[in-house]
Each structure stands twice: as C-alpha cells, then as structure tokens.
Amino acid sequence: MRIFRGPHLSSEAHSLANILDIGEMRRRLAHFCRNKYDDPTAEIVHIEVMPGHAGFAWGFTVEALDARDSWFIRLPPPNVRWRGTADVLRQVAALNALEGSDVPHCSVKWSGDDLKWFGSPYFVTELLQGDVLRLGKGEWAARLREDQRLQIGREAMQALVGIHRTDTAKVRYLGAPVPLEDDVTRWDTFLERAADPSRLAGAAGVRALLLEKCPKHAHIGLFHGDFQSANLFCSQDQQQAQPKLLAVIDWELTGIGAVLNDLGWVCTFSDRQAWTPGPGRGNFLDAERLEALYVEAWGEGVSDIAWYRALACYKFAIITGFNLSLHRRGKRVDATWEETKRSMKPLMQRAGELLESL
Fold first, then answer.
1. Is the pLDDT of residue 186 over 70?
2. Which pTM value belongs to this model?
3. What is the topology classification, in CATH, of domain 11-126?
4. Across residues 62-85, what is the average pLDDT?
5. Residues 6 or more apart from 37 whose CB is under 8 A from it?
6. pLDDT for 13-46, tens place per residue?
7. What's residue 3's pLDDT?
8. Among candidates 303, 269, 265, which has minimal Cα distance to 286?
9. Cys staple from 195: which of 37, 139, 158, 324, with CB 3.0 to 4.6 Å?
10. Which CATH code is given to the segment(s) 152-356?
11. What pLDDT, on a 0 to 100 scale, did the predictor assign at position 5?
12. Could you write out the three-class secondary structure of the chain?
C-alpha cells in the first residue's frame, strides 16, 4: 500500500509536470520508440492512462518494423524528488534481479535516467493481459472456487519466497537494510499527522510492545514492500481453466530488510479480525493458510510471524489515518480512505492482541 507524501519541489521534475497531457505523451513515446526500434516510421497507435496513483503510468501500443507491440511505461509523479518511492529505478533494480528466477514478474525492456525522452527517469515493461486479484463484492476474483484460490495462493507464496531468496548482491542500488526498530519508530511522524486520532488511541501501547518484543534475529533480504492481493496480477479465465499468477507488480516500496515484513503484510490483509466488514472488502485466503503456504514454500519453519503481523496492522492503521488527513485537506483526494478509516481501530486492537500472544 502506498504512502502519499506531500510534494517536494525539484527543478528536475518541472519538465515532467508539463508532459502529463496524453497527446504530449504520445508524441514523446513516438520519438522514443523510433529511436529504440531504429524505425523512423514507428507510430503509437494506442495509448491510455493506467490505473494507480503511486507513479504515473501509461499503456501504449506501437507499430514498428512490421510488428505491433504493447508496453507499459512508468514515470515518477511530478514535483517530487526522485528518491525513495519516487525513484523508479529502484523498481528496475528489483525486477532485473529477478531475471532468470521462477518469480513471475514483468521484464524491463528499456529504462534509464536520460531526461531527453520524458523529462524524468523511466522504465518500460511488457503490457500483460489480465487483472489483479479483485476481491470486492461482484468482482471476478471473489467468484473463484476455493481450490482455485488455494492454487493462486500457493503460487503467490512460492513467488514471495523466491523474492526473499534473491541474491542481495544484485540489488545494491537499494542501499542498506532497514533496521527492524526503525520500521517501528519511523511511523511516529505519520501518527502525529493522522486524521481521527481517537481511532488510533492504542498506538502508544502497541508501539512500546513492538519495540519490547522485536525479533532478535531476522532473515535479511529483498522485500517487495506491498505484497498483497491487489499486486498479484493474474490471468482471468477462471471459467475454463485455473487462473495463473502472471506477475507480482508495483515495486515502489521495495528494499532490503527483514523479509517476513512481506508475510506479515499479506496475512494482515486476509485477517478478518483486523478489519471492519465493508462493501469493498474480500478475503483471498485466511491468514493462517497463507502462513502455512509460505512455510511450505520456504521449506522449514519461520518464527515471529505474529510480530510481523502486528507491525503490519500498526503500520496500516497509521497509513490510513495519514492518507485520510491528506484526503480531507485536498492534498491527495481519495474518498476510499473515508471507508477504510472504519478499520483503524480494529487494526490497532488486532496488533495488540497479536503482541500479547507472544
């Protein structure tokens, strides 16, 4: 899940802010593709803005060299510094590290920081056909049979283990590991800025328990950062065949650190006790089943899962309050946070219950 920060103006980003018009983007893509295909007649025959708001992305189709190819391009948002989640080349580092592995992912075709093309760094991958696991009422994934969900869950946990076992020497661009204690305390600022603070009344006690019971040993490796059903891109032909996991997508929050953060995160999104039921909510598999599938794929037992689940509950409760504040102040308008706020209190309560169980 993305954390939306306020804009930090940078001179590099001014040019990007001027190219969000789809017509201008089409023109720039045509220039780009004529160079990459070495074909001066290459044309962009289709372009559309892709969903999501962690970056700026377009899907486009190019006709060149008697071929018709469809691609996905991601740029950073305008008017932000190209660091952290806005550094799209971090995603490139992670995706390139997965090449040759069994982890389903989008292969990077082109990437770079040459500003002459789009006024910002960029990367281009294949454009997949399918959809993410949409689990809300009436959505396609909500209609999957239990055996179909179980198979996708197994594929997802195998993919997650593959990510976690990636050689970190391949992703030095991502920097030093994030200490576990820092992943508790770095949310303090966001907590102070959260809307509806009464819904986060138990945060201080949960924070203290997280620090007190912080795991002494953690497997450090590549983590995704937002591993959950909305970032599992699948084929959709559930009536004729088993849907298949095609790619783990949206790597804005990737980094090096305790890999079980990812497991705690995906389990939290499937933990019924952590959420207030609502029309947009649907569970993929229960948290305990996901834990078991991860352990099966890892090949041996893992410890402290309850702590990582508690941390995920704590983080997402605060993230919700912070994004709710941005929404209400008109900084990042997204009315879905008005619905999600109903789970801030149960998320924090669930975090406390999990920590008390340790």
1. yes
2. 0.90
3. Phosphorylase Kinase; domain 1 (3.30.200)
4. 92
5. 62, 64, 65
6. 334 434 468 899 999 999 999 999 999 999 999 9
7. 35
8. 269
9. 324
10. 3.90.1200.10
11. 30
12. CCCCCCCCCCHHHHHHHCCCCHHHHHHHHHHHHHHHCCCCCCEEEEEEECCCCCCEEEEEEEEECCEEEEEEEEECCCCCCCCHHHCHHHHHHHHHHCCCCCCCCCCEEEEECCHHHHCCCEEEEECCCCEECCCCCCCCHHHCCHHHHHHHHHHHHHHHHHHHCCCHHHHHHHCCCECCCHHHHCCHHHHHCCCCHHHHCCHHHHHHHHHHCCCCCCCEEEECCCCCHHHEEECCCCCCCCCCEEEECCCCCCEEEECHHHHHHHHHCCCHHHCCCCCCCCCCCCHHHHHHHHHHHHCCCCCCHHHHHHHHHHHHHHHHHHHHHHHHCCCCCCCHHHHHHHHHHHHHHHHHHHHHCC
Give pLDDT tens digits for 200-259: 999 999 999 999 999 999 999 999 999 999 999 999 765 557 899 999 999 999 999 999
